[in-house]
Every structure is written in structure tokens, then in C-alpha cells.
Amino acid sequence: MAKELEKVDVVTIGAGWTGGIVSAETTKEGLKVKSLERGPYRDTNDYQHVHDELKYAVRYELMQDASKETLTFRNKRDERALPIRRFGSFLPGQGRGGAGTHWNGQTDRYMKYDFEIKSMTEDKYGKDKLSEDDGFMYRDWGITFDDMEPYYDTFEKTAGVSGEENPLGEKRSSPYPNPPMVKTKTLKMFEDAAKELELHPIMMPSSNMSQNYVNPDGETLNQCQYCAFCERFACEYDAKATPDVTVLKTAERTGNHEIRYNSNVTEIVTDKDDKKKVIGVKFIDTETHEEYFQPADIVVLSSFVFSNYKLLAVSDIGKQYDPETGKGTLGSHYCYQTGLGATGFFDDQFNTFMGAGALGMILDDFNGDNFEHEDLDFIHGGSIHFTQTGSRPILTNVVKEDTPSWGKDFKDESVNNFTRTLEVYTMAHTGPHRDNYLSLDPTYKDAYGNPQVRLTYNWTEKDNARNKYLVKQCEEILKKMGAKHIDVEDGDIGDYDIVPYQSTNLAGGTPMGDDPKNSVVNTWLQHWDRDNLFVVGSSAFVHNSGNNPTGTVCALAYRCAEGVINYHKDNKRLEK
Q1: Which end of the chain is more exposed for a tag (fewer CB within 10 A), N or C?
Q2: Mean pLDDT, range 462-468, rounded to an integer
Q3: Distance from the Cα of residue 170 to its chain's centroid
């Protein structure tokens, strides 16, 4: 029998960016909020002077424990899915701050085109531009960029984003709160080359601080030291905007917020007398193995893509998507991102061992519909990136493609190239497809007795066509930068492989929209079937973009928080 705890106004599942934002905004309004976080408590003191690539980058100190909860994977529906024993392709976090603790800080906005992709594509190119599968799966989000802009602005001020105006971007209501980061020699090389090609490079919008900053909630962030330990690491200087140094502090300072750590949620409980409401959640204390029931007026799912989907599925909330019939919405619209490019080898040495997670330049000339697609067999595109995130001895070991994988030649190439290689790469859109989706695995269970999530996913022909186009642009820029040798990744990448790391930028599974027939949540992230249940995160995306998703995730979290507050006041379903 689960032990029942004292009721709260709001319970969030997870204490990362989304859970932290909802907690901060609702507690400022006087609501009592509890966050259930399956990982441990950690803060900046735990990261002082710990530049340990093996512990954090290789052995995943900040990541989800795959021995307790993982997922199974297959490329096609007729294959047997097998468990992932060690995360590779993506890296879900756990513990205070969630994946927001180990992110790079790249803080883009999505484009107007992203939110209205189906209607804008068909208006410009006609309905034939989308294939039968595309036309079935692609749709608008039910919300526009203009609707989202105020929430983007709020998050960028909370995170102290360092950046500059994008000539290809949408209209901003205010400038970035901080100036861009330092433009290094390599970034200047990229900028000059891109401009020679008549492209529009800008400094990457960065949640690494270019200067000391106090955000609107009074939280202090320090100037970045360019130590090159950002992605897969927490910041020891409080110089990277993360949930634990911003919104979680803000929420806790109100006196209305509590985080309960080592608490793995296993079920969302529906009211037996009112099937349109939930009454709380069940969770397991992972240290004592005791089961608890946390009652709440409002439940907010604010965890990673797979966990948001899973908790709805195991709690029998919503209708599972069926690829055979196309019916159901839960588990649909799962998308990923591709990150291919080209590597240039130079005679000169560069200080690439220094850097920061979002120290870089970016251009959107080949993103969205910023270029003509009439004669191309794909839609959308990707941003082109050049970053100086830091070179480290274990995972940064670049050699030419024809170099032996061991022996003297391998060692000589490794040493020589350590600070003489530069990569230009793309972060590319992928769209929804009928055969790419999430479901519950019928065989494998997690440590708490629930089914594991089953991922069915593969690249499409359009993904390969888009990749081939984009890597050519990367190669052209490296030529202009003066590389003496260039290795270009093959755009035709075959079957999706779950083993090598590619991106943590996942999307879909609980897609949003303005029609319950094709979405799981409405545009306030409120579940169509449960009035007091909200689901926020990139699981709500209808497709993935050619930009980093964190800015959009957090903008949606601010919108969700507004919806939670309004629902708590009126106890009525929200309208757009």
C-alpha cells in the first residue's frame, strides 16, 4: 500500500529546465509545488576543479542509469527490439537540473516556418511537395511564432543569453540581454569564409555568460572562463545558465517549493469518479524502495521525451498511435536531428583546447525555407555551425579517414592533428514519418515493473537527400577557410544506429496541437483527456527543427506555467 503524502497544488515530474520553470513561475504566484526528481541532489560545490573527462564524458556521471530504466530499439516494425544497455545516440540526464545541467548552452529560436510548416510549404510549393506519408504526418503546431515570441524573450532574459541580431531571424521584441561571446581566431576564419560565400554568419546565441549577469529573478551568473568543460559536464563557475543556478533557486526562495530527490514516478493516477481529472502520482523512493502517493490539484509531466510518453502510456492516458491505421496520437511524431558535416585539416595550430559549449558561429541560409526548394526532393534544411567547444584527449582524437586505427601512423596523426583540425557541421531537421514512433515494449520491463519504452526509428530518403545537400555547404566553407585536406561525411548514412552519439535533440511522442484528433496536448500543453494534467518538453514538438531545441522547450515551459496558473484560478479548460 502506497503511503499518502500531504496534498500540494502542483507536482512536477522532474526538476530540470521545464519542471524548474513551471515551479518558479507558479510558486511566485503563491502555489505550493513539489518536484519529484529520480536522481540525486547536486550543486556547484560538487563540480569544483573536477575536469574529469573519463568520469563525466565517457562514463556518464550525470546521465540516466540505463541498468534501471532504458528503452528498446529497432529500425523497422517487423524487427525485434532489443534493450539499450548503454546510452550512446542521446544522453538523458538525471539529478538536480536534469539534462539542463550538462547542456552546451546553445539557445536558438525556431522559425515562423517551423510552427506553420505544412501550410507554408503547401502555400508556396503546392500539396504535391509533401508525399502521402508527409501529408499525413506533417502539420502546423496550432501556435505561431508571434504567439511564442514573448516566451522566448522571457527565457532568454532568465538565462542571460549572449548573442547578436540574426539578419535571417524573426523580429525580436528586445535585444539579447548580454553581448556575444569572444570571437576567436577560428571563429573569425569561419566568419570571413562564410561572408565570402555571401552567407550570413552570426555569433551563436549562448547561455554561457559573456559577462557577469543578474537575471530578472535576481539570480547571479558569472562570466564564462572558457574552460572547455560544458557539454556532458556541469559548470563549476555558475557561468552557464542551468536550472539549478536559475529557476530552481528562484522557486526554492519563495518558500513554496520542495524537491524530493531519488523519487522515481511510476504512475499518474486518474480520479475514479471523474475520468477527466488526475488526482496525483505514485512514486518509488529509490533508496528505501518504499512506494508513495503524492496527491496534487495539478500534475505536470516535465521530464525527458521518453519518460513523458511512458508515464502517459503506462497510466492508460490517451490513445496509443498505430502506424498500420494511422489512428491514435500517443507515441506519434517522434523525430531526431542529424549532425553531419566536414572536417578540415590545417598546417597552423589553434588553441582549440579552450572553448565553451556555445562558443561558435551559426548561419541560417540553408535552414527552414530560407533557400529555394522547388527542385529539391526534401523540405526544410538545417543551420550550419562552427563551434569551439574544446578539445579533450579521450573523445577528441581526429585523424584522416584513411589513417590506420592503431600503430605508429595512428599515433603520429593523433598528436599532429589534435589542434590542427576544424569542423563545420549542420544541425538538420527531421520530420515525422508514419513508421517512426514510440510504444511500450511487450517483453522488457524496468526496475520498477513497468514496460520499457520501445523506439521504432529509421532515417528516411528525405533525410539522406537533405544531409547530402547540407554537407556540401559545409565543405565549401572549409575550402574558403583554407583547409589543406577535407574529409566530408557521407550524407547517405544508411540505417539509424543507436550506438554512436549524435544528438540529444529528440522530439515528439506527445505532440501538441489545436485538435484532439491529431495531438496529445493543446497549445497550453494541457492534456486533451485530463483537464488538470500538463505535459511539457520537446515531446510536445510536432517535428524537429534545424536549430537547437532548448530555447523552444523553455519558451513552451513558460507558456505552460501561464496555463497552469490560469487553470488553477478558474478550474476551466484553457482556450487558445
Answers
A1: N
A2: 94
A3: 21
Measure the CA–CA gap between 239 and 212, rounded to whole angstroms. 8
pLDDT beyond 80 at 568: yes
For the chain, percent of residues with pLDDT exceeding 90: 86
User: What's the CA gap between 72 and 82, in Å, rounded?
Assistant: 5
How far apart CA 23 and CA 251 sit, in angstroms, is: 6
* Pairing between β-strand 421-428 and β-strand 213-214 as defined by DSSP bridges: unpaired
Number of C-beta neighbours around residue 48 at 10 A: 8
The radius of gyration of the chain from alpha carbons, rounded to an integer in Å, stands at 23
Give the closest residue to 243 by CA, choosing from 99, 104, 357, 48. 99
Residue length of the chain: 576
Q: Is a pLDDT exceeding 90 seen at residue 504?
A: no
C-alpha to C-alpha distance for 518 and 324, rounded to whole angstroms: 15
Helices (H) and strands (E) in the chain, counts: 12, 20
138-188 pLDDT per residue, tens: 999 999 999 999 999 999 999 999 999 999 999 999 999 999 999 999 999
pLDDT band, very low/low/confident/very high, at 2 (cuts 50, 70, 90): very high
d(CA 259, CA 444): 30
C-alpha cell at 426: 549542420
Q: Which of 501, 558, 454 is nearest to 63 (CA)?
A: 501
**Count of other CB atoms within 10 angstroms of residue 279:** 19
How far from chain centre, in Å, is Cα 570?
Answer: 32
CA distance 539 to 401: 36
Q: Supply the pLDDT for residue 501.
A: 85
Query: Cα 276 to the chain's mean position, in Å?
Result: 30
Nearest to 218 by CA among 181, 194, 240, 245: 245
Exposure on the CB side of residue 441, measured as CA atoms within 13 A: 25
Instruction: List the domains of the chain with CATH numbers.
Output: 3-570 (3.50.50.60)
**41-45, 233-237, 378-382, range with greatest mean pLDDT:** 378-382
Identify the CA nearest to 455 among candidates 560, 306, 556, 321: 306
Check: CB of residue 522 under 8 Å from CB of residue 515: no
CA dihedral 289, 295, 297, 300 (to 10 degrees): 10
Strands 437-445 and 33-36: unpaired
The DSSP H or E segment spanning 382 is strand 382-387
The SS3 call for residue 383 is: strand
DSSP string, 280-313: EEEEEETTT--EEEEEEEEEEE-S-HHHHHHHHH
At 276-335, the pLDDT tens digits run: 999 999 999 999 999 999 999 999 999 999 999 999 999 999 999 999 999 999 999 999
The Cβ-side half-sphere exposure at 97, using a 13 Å CA radius, reads 23
Measured CA to CA, the distance from residue 456 to residue 76 in angstroms comes to: 6
CB-based contact 295:5 (threshold 8 Å): yes
Strand partners, 276: none
289 three-state secondary structure: coil
